[in-house]
Design brief:
By secondary structure, the chain is an alpha+beta fold. It has helices at about 1-15, 20-30, 40-50, 220-225; strands at about 90-95, 100-105, 110-115, 120-140, 145, 155-170, 175, 185-200, 215-220, 235-245, 250-255.
Length: about 260
């Protein structure tokens, strides 16, 4: 009810460009360092604003959901074209600054963004159309680590499952935080879909916000039956090992929505 009433209010205030209103609010509450962190009230309001955004508000057409190559109507240069079986994801940059990133991912069916993290970041995601499976973890604290035992053995860290579900548009935005909410997640497109993301602060390697990819192993793989998890709860945990994203295929798309005025 709160989301629905706020959508009506925000739509009336920003009929010319909802994305401008979203940008203005993000600019107001986020800082380059991420400190001080926005209040819970400010983050809640951002989620309400984000929930008003529809595909047309960012230059997407509903029929793009039927394009199973993930390219939609975006211009992609000849060099970036790859075989259909690779199912590339289209990345669209809306805004990039020292304080936050606004972007869109357009997924063809069965395409995947592998399990990865968002260190020290808060991420808002709005599914604009289609259907997407989300699997997400949070680290177990204090850290529980199994060290390498020689060549071919990975150093793994224990994580707890936070989200494992299919999102179907329209649905409310999801939010992950630095320490909870599923900071490590992967996406798999059930059918063609598009996700609008806001990341604050953005990835920046020299400030410690590097994107790391992981492979998840079942709890029994490294626990030897005597780990820190209670019997019967094993399915809620996994061991994560750093890896390289060998199956990530992505093209650059052109933002076709209303221009944003800084």
């Amino acid at each position: 009810m709160v989301f629905a009433s706020f959508r009506r209010y925000f739509s009336m205030r920003h009929q010319n460009s909802k994305i401008q209103g979203l940008y203005d609010y993000c600019k107001n509450i986020f800082s380059p360092s991420g400190t001080p962190a926005p209040s819970s009230q400010a983050l809640h309001k951002l989620a309400l604003i984000l929930d008003t955004i529809r595909p047309a508000d960012v230059g997407l057409k509903e029929e793009a959901a039927d394009d199973d190559r993930g390219l939609g109507f975006f211009g992609v240069n000849q060099q970036s074209r790859i075989a259909r079986w690779a199912k590339p994801i289209t990345y669209i940059d809306i805004h990039e600054s020292n304080s936050f990133t606004m972007c869109i991912f357009c997924f063809p069916t069965s395409s995947v963004i592998p399990l990865h993290d968002h260190p020290g970041m808060t991420v808002f995601s709005k599914l604009l159309y289609g259907s997407l499976h989300v699997k997400a973890y949070d680290w177990v604290e204090p850290p529980c680590i199994v060290e390498s035992k020689g060549p071919g053995h990975a150093r793994v860290r224990l994580a707890k499952l936070a989200v494992d579900k299919v999102l179907n548009a329209p649905c409310e935005p999801s939010v992950l935080y630095p320490k909870h909410g599923g900071n490590l997640h992967c996406f798999t497109a059930v059918r063609p879909c598009a996700m609008l993301d806001i990341l604050a602060p953005p990835y920046k390697e020299y400030e410690g916000r590097k994107c790391t990819y992981y492979h998840d192993y079942s709890y029994s793989t490294f626990s030897a039956g005597n780990g820190p998890v209670c019997v019967g709860e094993e399915d809620e945990y996994a061991w994560l090992a750093e890896t390289e994203p060998c199956d990530l295929y992505m093209n650059s798309g052109v933002y076709a929505g209303p221009p944003i005025k800084p």
